[in-house]
Amino acid sequence: MGEFLGNFIAGYEEVLRFVAECVVYSLELVGILIIVIGSIKALLQVFTRIKKKKPLNVMISLGKSLSLALEFKMGAEIINTVIVRDLKELGILAIVIIIRALLAILIHWEIKMGIEDDENEKRVN
């Protein structure tokens, strides 16, 4: 019975590791795609605004894309904690999560400031 349970747990850990790695890579890919698509969209906005001679304020749309991508990437890091095996890996993972969280806060703050600036400009005009 003990050997069966040991084999079951080992098999379960392998399945869990496989599923977690698949989900992590999928979330990372979604985050990368969001960054690429958001960057292309912002670049197209720059070109159309230059062509129409409008102000070049595309920071808000790019910031929203980066923020969303960062959320997916942080989700991947959180799931990655399932497959961490030692304290050194966990420490590195914690640092990565903290850095990404700080970036997310900074991007949200910049978006908020950009929206407030746009609203102030509309009030003045």
The count of DSSP E runs of length 2 or more, i.e. the number of strands, is 0
| Total DSSP helices | 3
Estimate what percentage of residues fall within beta strands. under 5%
The outline comes out as: elongated
Radius of gyration, whole Å: 21 Å
Total number of distinct structural domains: 1
Low-confidence residue ranges: none
**Average predicted local confidence, pLDDT:** 84
Which structural category fits the helices and strands?
A: mainly alpha
The main sheet comes to: none
The sequence of SSEs as H and E is: HHH
What percent of the residues sit in helical stretches (DSSP H or I)? over 70%
**CA-to-CA gap between the ends?**
79 Å
Annotation keywords:
125 residues, elongated, single chain
Protein described:
- This protein has one domain.
- 88% of the residues lie in helices and 0% in strands.
- The protein has three helices and no strands.
- The mean pLDDT is 84.
